[in-house]
Write a structure and sequence with these properties.
globular, Growth Hormone, Chain: A, 15 helices, 2 strands, two-stranded parallel ribbon, mainly alpha
Amino acid sequence: MSVTDTSRTAVPGRLRLALLLGAFVALGPLTIDMYLPALPQISDELNASESLVQLTLTGTLAGLALGQLFIGPMSDAIGRRKPLFAGALLHLAASLLVLIAPNIEVLGVLRVLQGIGTAAGAVVALAIVRDLYFGRDAANLLSRLMLVMGAAPVLAPTIGGGVLHFTDWRGVFVVLAVYAALLLPLAWKVLPETLPVERRRSARIGATFRTYGGLLRDRVFVGLVLVAGFTMAALFGYVSGASFVYQEQFGLGQQTFGLVFGAGAIWLIVGTQFNPVLLRRWEPRQILSGAAVLGTVAGLVLIAVGATGAGGLVGILIPMWAVLAAAGVMMPNAPAVALSSHGEAAGTAAALLGAVQFGVGAAVSPLVGALGNDALAMTTVVAGGMAVALVVLLVVVRPWTLPDVEEAPVAAAEVDVAATP
């Protein structure tokens, strides 16, 4: 059945919906991670310092953060599908322009534009989940979505390393352009509209600022947004430093780096997919708290290993994988709890959540380079992100004071949700 902005929509079952949304969300991790094996090569070819090359990663994260602040309210006003299409189109154009980028400055600008393009998938996917579900249902679907999203970091450096085996670093962006082109028909024809006209909000600037103001006055929401942001900071501390630490300090080749980096992402996936099992017994707020404690403990071990060099590469990998697994459990639950009471402005709420996540990631990722681009620098940033997330959770959110969420779909009155599990 064709889908229009005013039609009642038969939404795909949860698995198919997770796959569809995951295809768009994966564009972000692919854009961030595929070129990681090429960072030293880019530094050499464009005659740029390692810190400047790492700033192109920061630019992508900044684009993701800022783009979501605009795209989220837009999706509340005009629906979910059109922003997805526009984002994929912008990403495609920026990826093609990278092929003729003459210097690191132009590359940095184009990476910002790529980030803005991927922001549409990041924010609209969360908004669609909140259109349809909340509480445990939302956390379960987000866990499945994270499975698809988690496959991207597993595959991205390996794909990037494979591409570099046959061509130079610009070939990575050809692959990204092809992927964005494949998303365009999904955005326009396949993915259904989940926000009926009667539930849309004003697109005027004043109304948007009032919505953001209301969200920022919600202590629990702001706290959970910060928890998600500092968890993401830990992840991007790892992403920013891994290429230089693994390849230059420990001597791994590009292909081997891709495999080792992908192994870490597998543990992130393990965390996300263990989450639905945990949800059968505990509330999302309880699971979030336990994972934050475990992630912080693993982070402390990680920084000790980074400082002493005990165990070499293996000594770094084991506690790092534990941190990634804990982050995988935290990532679906923080937004599920944060969005549970803001279904009336799901796009705007998801935008603020995503903007802070990637904004904090953008601010933190250069710290690895500033601290020396070695194992101690990377582990310090990773452990610090997890520790701050735990402190914010305990001091600001105070999860033991939150009520249990109800397990029920939200948008059944407006949208026909397929019963396929």
